[in-house]
Structure formats: structure tokens, C-alpha cells
Amino acid sequence: MTAQPPANLTPHRRFNPLSGEWVLVSPQRNQRPWQGAREPASATDLPDHDPACYLCPGTVRANGQRNPDYDGVYVFDNDFPALLPQPDSATLAADPLLRAEPVQGVCRVLCFSPRHDLGIGELSPRSVTAVVRCWREQTRELGSQPQLNYVQIFENRGAAMGCSNPHPHGQIWATGHVPTRVQRAHERQQQWYAAQQQSLLPSVLERERSLATRVVYENARFTVLVPFWAAWPFETLLLPRFPVASLTQLDDADCAALADAWQRLVQAYDRLFDCPFPYSAGVHQAPSDGHQHPAWQLHLQFYPPLLRSASVRKFMVGFEMFAESQRDITPEQAAALLREQF
């Protein structure tokens, strides 16, 4: 068995097997004084319905359409999509130095609830499960279209992560191509599977559960942990403890268990610094290209930026932009702090 990671406060690097990249860990830097930027406090006194919000029931969106008076989850095509259903038929230059290709896809918005003021941490478990089941159905619908080869589900929570509307919602982008980071994870998982005859992430999970150092929460079906290679201060990985490549393979009990792990993690984040914790979260699942993907394991990743408090965040700049990811607080320290919030 591999030994435990360095427990001292000296710099070292850690390898991310999903991306093939390294992360520089510099725990001694966490002692330095902070005189940099501080995030403004997030609004916590939102109304339950905002007539000016384009995601609330009954309001008019920017394109002039009126939302229905929905009482559960609500999905609609994004009024300002990053992708269009039909690719541009214009011929693009075949220059090896200036390459471009047409793209197509579908972009949708998923409102978690009609309530403007209730996020995942405040909704009922049944309502959160309804969101996960909607993910499953949207993946099944979009993934069945032959021109779409990947379904990316994500949530940006909070203004610090660029969220343009406080109404709790996520997005679903289905693309005709497999996106760059997904393709990289796809190749890394395939390489591991070919060499080891077992999937990469179940192997990671087995090791992490045996060590327990970075595990922060478990229920009957899912585990939340701070990955050994985490780049963001309180980055987490949400993993199923059974083989599953896609959301479409989850049954209703699985959806409820995934919803429980997601909700409890968000609640723990909020308690950590006593604030609505900002993050970007994404669901990574196998491509929907009609092929079998035995190397793939469904997983969710959470990238929250807060570092020391509700107002001090981590910025991915400088060395991180030009060389490689770097973090101050160790993943083990982050996991210990998060465990205290459950």
C-alpha cells in the first residue's frame, strides 16, 4: 500500500491522474499575512419570489417569453446559448496553424425550485432528489440525439463564481464534440483501465476509504472526499461506490443518495465560513456517443474559491496561470475542516 502523503509543512507536488497534471502544494505559505482583495458579503435576505428575476415563476425573460407558474424543477432552452443546434455550414480554412471547426449543441437552464431564496442547502431532500432525477432525464433525452456526443451539467453558485442570477439554478450543455477536459479525463481513465484492468476512480476511492484521511462524508451509496491532488482550497470529489458511467444508469434510490451527498456537502460548505459558499460544480460522465465506456466512472467535482474566510478567496493567477496549479492549505487540512461541519 502506498504510504501516507507528506504530513510536514514543506513544499511538494502531487499528481492528478484524471488530468495528467501536477499540483504544487506549499503549506508554509498559509501563514503569510493577507492584504489582498476581499470578497463582498453575499446577499442572504432574498425574497421568495422576485418579479424582476427572469428565472422566477410567471416572470418575463429577456426574449419576451413568460415562465410558467412552475412548482418544481423547470428546464428551458437558454435564451443566450453558447452553442446552436445547427453547425455553421461555412467552410473553415484548413490551416494547420489556424485550425477551426464548426460546432453544434444545445444549452439549457435548470431552475432547482420556484423559490428564489432557497438553494440546495435549504431545499427539502425530496426537492434536491427531483433535481438529480431531472439531470438523469435530461442526459437521457439529449444523449439519445445522434448529433450530440456529450452532456455537461454544471452549477455556478454565487457572484464570486460569475453567477449572473441568485435564483438557484444550474445549466446543461450538450455538445456535438467531447470537450477538451472531458476528453483528457476520458483518455486517462482508458489508459489506467488498459494497464490495470480496473477503473481509475474506483481504485482511488478504495485507497481513500482505507486511509480515511481525506474522506469527509459517506452515505450508503456515495462518498465525498477531498482528492489527494486537489488544486482549489476546499475542492471535493463526489463518487459512487458502485460501477456506473452515466447518470442514465442511476435508479431512483441512487438519485436520492446522490442528492443527499450533494446537499450535505453544500450545507457543510455554508457552515465552514458561515456564508452561502460559492463554488462551481460539474458532473462528469461517459460520452453519449453510442459506445460502451467500461473505464468511465461517474463523478461530481466541486471547485470553491474561498480560502481563509467568507471574504478571502483563492485566485488562480500568476504561477497558476503560467506554470501549474498551486495551493497553500493541504488537502488533509481541508478535509479535516470540512469533516467538522457534518
Molecular structure report:
With 342 residues, the protein is an alpha+beta fold. The protein has a single domain, classed as HIT-like (HIT family, subunit A). It is built from six helices and twelve strands. It has helices spanning 125-143, 180-196, 200-211, 252-272, 319-322, 331-339, and strands at residues 12-16, 21-25, 74-77, 105-111, 150-157, 169-175, 215-218, 222-225, 236-240, 279-284, 299-303, 325-327. Helix 1 crosses helix 4. It is globular, with a radius of gyration of 21 Å. The two termini are 29 Å apart. The mean pLDDT is 92.
How would you state the average pLDDT, rounded? 92
Query: H/E order of the elements?
Result: EEEEHEEHHEEEHEEHEH
Counting structural domains, the number is 1
Q: Give the name of the CATH architecture.
A: 2-Layer Sandwich
Gross morphology is: globular
Which SSEs are present, and which pair or pack?
Blueprint (H helix, E strand, L loop, with lengths): L11 E5 L4 E5 L48 E4 L27 E7 L13 H19 L6 E8 L11 E7 L4 H17 L3 H12 L3 E4 L3 E4 L10 E5 L11 H21 L6 E6 L14 E5 L15 H4 L2 E3 L3 H9 L3
Parallel strand pairs: 2-12
Antiparallel strand pairs: 1-2, 3-4, 4-6, 5-6, 5-10, 7-8, 8-9, 9-11, 10-11
Helix pairs in contact: 1-4
Features:
single chain; alpha+beta; HIT family, subunit A; 6 helices; 12 strands
Write a compact overview of the structure shown.
This protein has 342 residues and is an alpha+beta fold. The protein is built from six helices and twelve strands. Strand 1 (12-16) and strand 2 form a beta hairpin.
